[in-house]
Amino acid sequence: MAQTTPNHTQTVSGWAAHDSSGKITPYTFKRRENGMNDVTIKVLYCGICHTDLHHVRNDWGITMYPVVPGHEITGLITKVGSNVTEFKVGDRVGVGCLAASCLECEFCKDSQENYCDQIQFTYNGIFWDGSITYGGYSKMLVADQRYVVHVPENLPMDAAAPLLCAGVTVFCPFKDNNMLEAPGKKIGVIGLGGLGHVAVKFGKAFGHHVTVISTSPSKEEEAKDRLGADDFIVSTDAAQMKVCYLLTIYSTSYVSYCTEIKTKEVSFDCLDLVVDRQGRGKRVVKGSMTGSMKETQEMMDVCGKYNITCDIETIPPEKINEALDRLAKNDVKYRFVIDIDAQKPASL
Ligand SMILES: [Zn+2]
Ligand SMILES: [Zn+2]
């Protein structure tokens, strides 16, 4: 569809999957001209999110091939439209999951456009002009200024890239529960992966007591010694989990963030939400989906303040398939980031 949209005149090199084999190959396509509200971005880095893997393999049955994945994008602005006031050429910027929303619903008007029911994503979405959106596994991106954020000067562009999805996803629960400026809470982080390791960093930066809950006992040293977690619980150990359950139920300040992406049923006695040892309680089970653009910028600024980035393994574009295979086996610490401009070695 994008190829036939009239103002899609800019030729871009990227990488796409063409069928459910998920194999990524170089792909040349068209992007729209830079409109009045748009910025054009030279893409420097793009993180590989688990969502990319689901899309290239059509795990959810919604993929429109060819799909150019990537929604953890950092780069430099090369062009701005006449209505753009917040950005200028040369600015260090990031683009996350969102490409468009209705701009008129209660969520859009309240800077919560990530909950707009007409939300369109950075790839595999349908933009306002009817074209299919293509993501950050590409050398250049045109984005509406509303869905672009500044990247603080002190953050490296490669390790900052995954903050655009993984970072904001775990930042919002802190923000939502007023835990940015109120230290001393107890937090449980379930799953120490791409999201979990950033959640630990946020938790410690904001002065909380952080417990990592993981299926892998081998991650304890890493969680405590390197990432600074205070406690570690092995989720397959029934005795340890019982303590964890009691903490969650009986403590008034225990917040657990599940960062695992497998779907799971959760069951609990609803009385536990209102009754504790003292005979009272006010507990909440809650979810959130990524974050708004306002929250994404706030998260970036907070990361600049505390010097928080993701732990990454950088790869050249030729290794995207290898990285996706390794990601499927959870063989990455903690996020792959594609160096979009990496030069091919002469031997290839
Ligand atoms: Zn993602
Ligand atoms: Zn809306």
Automatic annotation (TrEMBL):
This is Uncharacterized protein. It comes from Rhododendron molle (Chinese azalea).
